[in-house]
Amino acid sequence: MKQIPASLLTLTAGILITLVSLWVGQHHGLLPEQASEAAVLVDQLFNVMVMIATALFLVVIGAILLFCFRYRRAPGDEDDGIPIEGNLPLEAFWTAIPAILIIGLGVYSVQVFQEMGGFDPGSIHVGHSMIGGAVSHAMPSHEMHAVPQGSVAMMAQAPDDGAIATDATADLLADLPEGTEPPATPVPRYGFGANAAEEGHTPDLVVNVTGMQYAWLFNYPNSGIMTGELHIPVGKDIQLNISAQDVIHSFWVPQFRLKQDALPGQSSGLRFVATKVGTYPVVCAELCGSYHGGMRTQVVVHTPEEFDEWLQQNAVAQQQNPSQTVAVNPAELSDRDYLSPYAQEMGVSDQVLSQVLAQVRSRS
Ligand SMILES: [Cu+2]
């Protein structure tokens, strides 16, 4: 029987390895569901890396197994192996392949980072407002040049009041007279900014996030809401201003494929769009003390209507004036103030109520 030529075998092996690697790259099932726009970009990069890793694994392990079998010791052969040393073309080949792969992956990952808005967040400390470009042409051209191209420069336009930007806000800003700049707002110096599509737009919602041993606190500056879990509307442009109270923590939502360090005394930014309604875990990804493992909460992605409802309910529950929130916080009232409305309803006179209260006090 004639031998099959080695080149033909190599070609077949190459095609098979390529097909298997392509398949594994798409079907590895290693990642949780995608719930943000950034997740798609990160996963594409990850899939390419899994594909390359699979191909390398098959080539290396395949070669080892093949050589073990093909060049195994023949029975009765007690000789040493042939002393082969130095093969310049082979060495150049196995140096060039990883170099090309690493440079390629490096360029690709930087591109993904840039698309996610990862560059240049701290290039300016206070921002010029440019809402949807409405105000931008009101600015003198030399000032336009002063604003860096980096996406995070645009984060500067985040309203610090955490409001969902309404059409009314946009109209108001669009009506500003020529040359007028809306008040400057401090910007986080580190973190992810807006991606290319969101550049030049104010985020729809700003939330201040504080990490502390061992919990996350979320503050909605405009409505004054303070919660232990993050609530956001789906499909909206969200800006988180993250900081820490004690040590370094790290705000990580695996389903969003986003992670940002929380630094004491230094705000960092994270801007993203959630794409799927649901509840996802928030994990602290920085070993921050003995109970670091328990530093978890969740992010609830609502439909815009549900989010408005949540916002209203919580704004009422957390109102500052206790007299308007008797039902929520009766502990703030004296016994008399608390009981008066009920006494009136039951036809008990003020005098009787005073006597009853005096008796209760004397007994306690
Ligand atoms: Cu932590």
From TrEMBL:
Named cofactor requirement(s): Cu cation
A molecular-function term among this protein's GO annotations: copper ion binding
Domain Cytochrome oxidase subunit II copper A binding as annotated: residue spans: 202-313
Domain of life: Bacteria
Subcellular location per the Swiss-Prot or TrEMBL entry: Cell membrane; Membrane
Pfam families: COX2, COX2_TM
Occurrences of domain Cytochrome oxidase subunit II transmembrane region profile (ranges): 22-120
Entry keyword Membrane: yes
Family: Belongs to the cytochrome c oxidase subunit 2 family.
Functional summary from the UniProt entry: Subunits I and II form the functional core of the enzyme complex. Electrons originating in cytochrome c are transferred via heme a and Cu(A) to the binuclear center formed by heme a3 and Cu(B).
Name of the protein described by the UniProt record: Cytochrome c oxidase subunit 2
Organism of derivation: Thermoleptolyngbya sichuanensis A183
